[in-house]
Write a structure and sequence with these properties.
Shape: globular
Largest sheet: 7 strands, mixed
Order of helices and strands: EHEEHEEEEHHHEEEEE
Bound molecules: biotin
Strand order of the largest sheet: 1-2-3-7-6-5-4
Structural class: alpha+beta
Number of helices: 5
């Protein structure tokens, strides 16, 4: 078990902020927040997604939060497994708590229902020399938003279940799933990758992807411990290819 306080033991609630990840990063850098602190906002004016993308979310409709983790006792090589365990936490939440079928993880950290994205994870790490000091785990989960920009194929809990969710009630359930996943990461790391790969979009299937502006097709074999994705006999880093869903 972790000797640290659980995720959500301290919650900082904000009406509006540029990005909960940036705010959490500033707090932890200034030594003003402990492990397990969650920064949660009703609205972000500059929500960040993977690879410099924006994360768009209508005010007060969705879950937007960042968790501060102390990773000083962790090995830098375990960064991808931390990401994988939080991906599994969100798919578990969707299947176990909401009975949603057809959830999957699109490598490396997009959560999909069918062909529509419902959640995204952006982990930003503080690394000094060889020491992994902090991880800021940012999660955006679409909850009560029913319509999305034309260019985005997205869904939400309300669109999938037909029910409006109380964001405050949802927090407790999410933190429970996240704490369970984090404990698995701490004590049973070997189980994470198999669980992640079992839920991976396109696993063992021919998938289409773009590499160097060329469209290719080959069999997706799965992700390795360091997060490289094997397609056919090649291993790819995040950002090197784009999977077509
Ligand atoms: C992605 O799918 O590209 C990752 C999206 C991560 C969005 C969340 S919302 C809360 C936290 N704060 C941010 O600025 N980004 C993350």
């Amino acid at each position: 078990m972790s000797h640290f306080p659980p995720i959500g033991s301290s919650i900082i609630e904000l009406e509006e902020i540029d990005s909960t990840n940036d705010y959490a990063m500033q707090l932890s850098s200034a030594g003003l927040a402990d492990h397990g602190t969650v920064v949660i906002a009703e609205h972000q004016t500059k929500g960040k997604g993977q690879q410099g993308n924006n994360w768009q979310s209508k005010p007060k409709k969705n879950m937007l939060f960042s968790i501060i983790l102390n990773t000083t006792k962790e090995d830098l090589q375990s960064q991808f497994l931390l990401n994988a365990s939080f991906c599994c936490a969100i798919t578990n939440l969707l299947t176990d708590e909401f009975g949603i079928k057809d959830t999957c993880i699109k490598w490396p950290n997009d959560i999909f229902i069918g062909k529509n994205k419902i959640a995204g994870i952006l982990i930003e790490n503080v690394i000094r020399g060889q020491q992994w000091v902090n991880a800021i785990v940012g999660i955006g989960l679409n909850v009560n938003q029913t319509t999305f920009h034309d260019t985005i194929r997205a869904t939400s809990l309300i669109n999938e279940t037909g029910n409006v969710q109380k964001i405050n009630d949802l927090r407790k359930i999410i933190f429970k799933c996240l704490n369970r996943a984090y404990q698995t990461y701490l004590i049973n790391r070997v189980s994470i990758l198999a669980n992640y790969n079992a839920q991976l979009y396109g696993i063992d299937e021919n998938i289409q992807f773009i590499k160097d502006n060329l469209e290719k097709t080959d069999v997706l074999k799965g992700a390795g411990e360091q997060g490289l994705l094997q397609i056919g006999n090649q291993h790819y880093r995040h950002g090197e290819i784009k999977l077509l869903v």
